[in-house]
Amino acid sequence: MNQFAKIKPNTQFIGQNIIYFKCIDSTNNAALDWIKNNSCENGNIFITDFQTNGRGQQSNIWESEPNKNLMFSIVLNQQTTLLNPFLLNKITAYSLFQSLQKSLNNSQFIKIKWPNDLYFKQKKIAGILIENNFLGNKINYSVIGIGINVNQKFTNNDNINATSLFQICEKEQDRIRLFQEFIEVFEFNLLHFQSLEIENQFTKSLLGYNQTEEFNINNEIIKGTIVNCDEFGRLSVLINDQIKAFNHGEIKQII
Questions:
Q1: What sign does the CA torsion over 123, 223, 107, 182 have?
Q2: Is 169 exposed, middle or buried (0-12, 13-18, 19+ CB in 10 A)?
Q3: Are residues 158 and 228 in the same domain?
Q4: Are residues 161 and 221 in the same domain?
Q5: How far is residue 76's CA from residue 111's CA, in Å, rounded to a whole number?
Q6: Same domain membership, residue 156 and residue 232
Q7: What is the pTM of this model?
Q8: At what angle do helices 195-204 and 85-103 cross, to 10 degrees?
Q9: Residue 104's domain spans which residues?
Q10: Are residues 219 and 245 in the same domain?
């Protein structure tokens, strides 16, 4: 049994059963397989030290060095999954935001990059991929995939816009501690946050909130100011004195 599987977080159900893999294609895939076989309980977490085919948004690949980072997936069934799919994204992202802030002594440079990445200054440090299964118009279950760059050492030759806790703090970080802290923060937020409260906290934590930023809209570079992220996950941007709402894929924030 790996040290991750021995963790007993102070939670009601999230992480009470942790399934560890030394190497796997994707923790989200593992979770989905267990669900199909009816052997997955609410709050199960699947974690690995190395993914051979980690997935990000829009078929992007999540690249990670073995034994350096955190790669895991949380399963929520219909009894705890929220009716609004994007509200779950907001809770997950804000929980990551809180956990990383704590690790970095409340750094003002940790921000949520809409819709589901965490950035330190201008570099990505964590990402989220949520896969929902619907039964009619309601969510049946959700698989929340999370990747955090903890001790990976990126170089200029890597040609990727990423950083890690190690590079920011210039010392090795305790993956087990960070993992357990996140589990506990996530469950607390899931059970206690009111919809409006989490939406306000998420919006205020956005990279570029209330600041003039450049965006790519229909291959045109336009300046605007992020003012909100609504209940459907649309980004509201003030452009030429008009507030316009954009779905994911319709606008790209230029970092």
A1: negative
A2: middle
A3: no
A4: no
A5: 25
A6: no
A7: 0.92
A8: 50
A9: 3-204
A10: yes
